[in-house]
Each structure stands twice: as structure tokens, then as C-alpha cells.
């Protein structure tokens, strides 16, 4: 929250790493208890609704590693950042609904989707449009699908967000993940120049704030002393992307039964 300047009410942040989560600072308590939503607080004590997904970008990273190794084998090694940039930008060339492909990134259980265990899966019908662009688009969709399910609960609670800022390594490549996240959440998403930074930097900022704690609020300190000159890009959700993701998410929900039976059909391999 601190690393993204998201401690004031009606602000929120999305972090994507091994796990993925969204945190929104509330104006008022939620109307009822939701098992999918954790209620925590900002360092200043304001209530925060948190949608936490166990599975983030790990499966996407595995695929990037596979494609990176392929590039090495054919003598076209471009480095990890280059592989991610190429694949994420290719995702934007895919069909808005993923061309009929489905990707599940569940390396473990996912409480938001009521999954006690998980298995990564790629599923397609024989007539799906099986292209690299659609494959990569659905891999990115997989990172945000359960997050989107959880955020829809907050939408139903009429939780208002003026500013949603994303951070994590996935956003180091400017544009693709930000655009897809905006579509998945149906809200503008901002990414700052510190998008690759996270918790350790936030803790350093809190340590710096100790000297100012008696003279200004944490929100004022961050606004005036830390982020006043920070560069931030904001991306609005594109209508075609929002519609496409909605179609994809409907398919995803219907196919969750595959995830429920997969751990029994495909037991873990002990090594």
C-alpha cells in the first residue's frame, strides 16, 4: 500500500508476483462477511478490503522460461526481459476473448474460486484459434481471472475506487499487462515509474515517515514528500477488451469444474 501511495480512502493497489492481490481502502465497512475477502488495515488504521489470490505470475514465468530456452536453442537469446516483452506484446495481438482457449495458472489451491488444490491447464476446443497471440493472452488472463472474481464482490458492495495503481515485475514491460488488467477489472489502472518495486521499498518509506509522523498524516507525507514528482501512466479500459474478457471469464467460470477434478486425475509427482 505504501509503495503505491494507496493509503487514502477510495484508493487501491494491485500487486502481481508469486501471488496476486488487490487492496482497496474503504470508506465504510462492508455490508456483510465474504469468505473470499480479507479485511486488513492501512498503517494508519483505515479498513482495507483485500482480494488475495494464491496464484499470480508463476505459471506465466514458467512459459516465458520455456520460450526463452527455445530462443537460446535456435541461437536467438534475447534475455529474460526481452522474452517477457515479446510475449506480452504478442498477447495484445490475440482475440479479445482469447480465441476460445482457456488457461488456468493454479499451482496451488485458490480460495477465491473455491479450489482446494490446483493444476495448471491449457484447454481448447478443436475449433479454437490456437495461435501464439491467443495462447499468451489467455496466460495473462489467467493471472487476473480469480482476482476479477473477487473484485466483482466488492463491486456488488458498491465499493468506490478513485485510483488503482498496479505494481510488480509483470508491469515492467510498459502497456500489455496494464491494458489487460484494466479490462479485467473494468477500471482505469495506473502504473508508476516504481512499478517494479514492492514491499521492501514500502517499508523503507515507512521508516522514513517516522520522523514526520507527528507533523503530517501518512497520506500527506506520501503525496507531498515521495510521489509529488513521480511519473505515472494511466490506462482506461478499452470497450472491446472489457467485452472480450467478460466472455472469457464466463467460459472460465464454467470450466472451473476441470480444476476441481484435476488434482485427483493428475496427482502430484514426488521427486
TrEMBL record:
Keyword terms: Carbohydrate metabolism, Kinase, Transferase, Xylose metabolism
**Pfam name, any one:** FGGY_C
Q: Which GO terms describe its molecular function?
A: kinase activity
What GO terms in the biological process aspect are recorded for it?
A: D-xylose metabolic process
Q: Which InterPro entries match?
A: ATPase_NBD, FGGY_C, FGGY_Carb_Kinase
Q: Where is the Carbohydrate kinase FGGY C-terminal domain?
A: 13-209
Q: Which SUPFAM superfamilies match?
A: Actin-like ATPase domain
* Family matches, as PANTHER family: SUGAR KINASE, XYLULOSE KINASE
Q: Family, per the entry?
A: Belongs to the FGGY kinase family.
Q: What is this protein called?
A: Carbohydrate kinase FGGY C-terminal domain-containing protein
Instruction: Write down the species.
Output: Acidipropionibacterium virtanenii
